[in-house]
Amino acid sequence: MVLASVGTFVKDVLHFFFPPICTLCSGRLVESDQVICDRCRQELSHLMEPICRRCGSPSVTRASDTCPLCRKVKPAFDCARAAARYCGPAEQLVHEFKYNERLELAPVMAQIMYGAWQRLLAFDLPDVVIPVPLHPVRQRERGFNQAELLAAPLAALFQKPVISDAVVRVRPTLTQTHLGLRARMENVEGAFAAAIGSDARLRDKCAALIDDVCTTGATGSACAAALKKAGAGRVILFTFARASTE
Ligand SMILES: [Zn+2]
Ligand SMILES: [Zn+2]
Q1: Closest ligand to Cα 75
Q2: Residue 84 Cα, ligand 1 centroid: separation in angstroms?
Q3: Has residue 174 got a pLDDT over 80?
Q4: How far is the CA of 80 from the centre of ligand 1 (A)?
Q5: In terms of C-beta density within 10 A (0-12 exposed, 13-18 middle, 19 or more buried), how is residue 87 classed?
Q6: What is the CA(166)–ligand 2 centre distance, in A?
Q7: Gap between the Cα atoms of 56 and 221, Å rounded
Q8: Whether residue 246 has pLDDT greater than 60
Q9: Contacts of 153 (CB under 8 A, 6+ apart)
Q10: What's the 42 CA to ligand 1 centre distance in angstroms?
């Protein structure tokens, strides 16, 4: 009890001399346990209707339309949605998280994703949460899988299990950044496989497939195809941000 109040006192003194600041804008935080400020949170640009009902791309003119890309090649996921556009504070957050390795940002990003899920997909909750796997060599180089770090706190919010070993990345792939859609699809084709064939944990389940950023959805679609092979009933690709393909 005494120790706890000493701890609070030390924290108060520390905060007096070193007030907690927002990771993104360095503005002062109202609550000491916040990581980003309310203004930065509000400035996250959400994807509003009209969006493609399948892949969530904003390149449609009417709600409930399907975009030209999805009409050309139907993705393997049932739908894809993202919490924010990949710009402004969302881009900054991903950058801090992934490239500056501020891994403590994962729970904040997961919280934002959880709020977005409720807004975009109502209360159509997933049964299982699955991070898009990295190739083992890539994961060793990076030291972590960003999708896994997001999936764990998100699954806790949904109160659903995380399954990280149902699909594996069997082939390393080039970074997709500078590739066009067709090249991206070829790059990830056959990159994922169901780990044990038919997987009882996935049978007829709705799987939330989690990643940090989605651009064309090619990676998500290739991974969703493997999940479907393993028996998943529905796959919803859900990412923190969506980059524009235009
Ligand atoms: Zn801020
Ligand atoms: Zn689409």
Answers
A1: 2
A2: 16
A3: no
A4: 28
A5: middle
A6: 26
A7: 13
A8: no
A9: 106, 107, 110, 111
A10: 9
Give tens-digit pLDDT for 55-111: 998 888 887 789 988 998 899 999 999 999 999 999 999 999 999 999 999 999 999
What's the Cα-to-Cα distance from 35 to each of 7, 41, 70, rounded to whole Å? 20, 10, 37
pLDDT at 244 over 80: no
Provide the β-strand partners of residue 232. 203
Q: Which ligand is nearest to the CA of 30?
A: 1
180 has pLDDT over 80: no
- Cα(198) to centroid(ligand 1), Å: 46
- Residue 46: what pLDDT? 86
Where are the domains positioned within the chain? 1-42, 44-242
Question: Ligand 1 centre from 118 Cα, in Å?
Answer: 24
C-alpha–C-alpha distance, residues 232 and 74, integer Å = 17
Ligand 2 centroid to residue 65 C-alpha, Å? 8
| Residues 147, 211 contacting (CB under 8 angstroms) | yes
Under 8 Å between Cβ of 72 and 61? no
Query: How far apart are the CA of 75 and the centre of ligand 2, in A?
Result: 8
Which H or E run contains 129?
A: strand 128-131
At the top level of CATH, which class does the domain 44-242 belong to? alpha beta
Q: Which one of the ligands is nearest to 242 CA?
A: 2
Count the neighbouring beta carbons within 10 Å of the beta carbon of residue 40: 20
